[in-house]
Amino acid sequence: RPDGFFEIAHPKMRPVEAHIDGVFIAGCASGPKEIQVSIAQGEAAAAKAMRLLLRGELTLDPVTAMVDTEKCIGCKLCVETCPSKAITVDKIAFIDEAACKGCGTCAAACPVDAIDMRLFSDEQIMAQVRAATAVKGQYPFIVGFLCNWCSYAGADLAGTSRIQYPTHMRAIRVMCVGRVDPAFVIEALKGGADGVLISGCRLGECHYNKGNYQAYQRVEVLRGVLEKVGINPGRVKIIWCAASEGEILAKEVREFVEELKEMGPVGTELRALRAPEPSGGGS
């Protein structure tokens, strides 16, 4: 952290764990605290370390990033975006799958599509977007990208708690909103979605440390691009909610529906995205 202390994964759920598996933080390493708290955290960290050592072997999550070495240009943008520090570059990118958390921020950031994800590949997500927009529901129609850990869980909670909200949205699960490539959003709009809702963990509580911050920055840039080509930037909305905040998610969906009704159907705004590509030809 900028203040020199180590950052814990989550102040309540994982108070002695770092964002890197097998690294534990206790006592004043994460900030000033009372002696009793430091002792309790030390005991908790020791217990977690012992449990890890007694396993004998580790099971890795299959959701990891992979590099197409034929496409990689060694720009190192993935190194800057990776919250797990799992990527190194020596002419081309190399991903340490044992350290990779599978958030997908590197895949969304890669300028040449040289990085993709196992189980949440570009092709798979694009297929979901096209399927969602192929049969549109009520107007206004919304495609939602919800993070696995908070927003998607919040949507499930809203359903099981019988919290009422408009059925205008088709939700697509991603591990982190940092995985949302601008191409996914554009594909949804091209397919006729009146709006795109991106919902992630609360700022400061991202399961992958900073994926939601990166998603926010990416959306701000995308909004600017959409505005320049004649698409109302308000058609892309990004929100934050915790897994326990199904009511907040429902409220945000209701509000977004009303906002889109005021904008009107995406209609003629799509002409900019559907313009025919110039035909190729030799000079």
Strand-helix topology:
Blueprint: H1 35-55, E1 65-67, H2 77-81, E2 87-90, E3 92-95, H3 105-109, E4 115-117, H4 122-134, E5 142-147, H5 151-160, E6 169-174, H6 182-190, E7 195-200, H7 211-228, E8 236-240, H8 246-263, H9 271-274
Parallel strand pairs: 5-6, 5-7, 7-8
Antiparallel strand pairs: 1-4, 2-3
Helix pairs in contact: 5-8
Quick structural gist:
Helix content is 36%, strand content 13%.
Structure, described:
- The protein has helices spanning about 35-55, 75-80, 105-110, 120-135, 150-160, 180-190, 210-230, 245-265, 270-275; strands at about 65, 85-90, 90-95, 115, 140-145, 170-175, 195-200, 235-240.
- It has about 280 residues and is an alpha/beta fold.
- The protein has 3 domains: about 1-60, no CATH class; about 65-115, Alpha-Beta Plaits, CATH 3.30.70.20; about 120-270, Rossmann fold, CATH 3.40.50.
- The strands form 3 sheets. The chain has a 4-stranded parallel beta sheet with strand order 6-5-7-8, sandwiched between helices.
- Helix 5 (about 150-160) crosses helix 8 (about 245-265).
- About 35% of the residues are buried.
- The mean pLDDT is about 90.
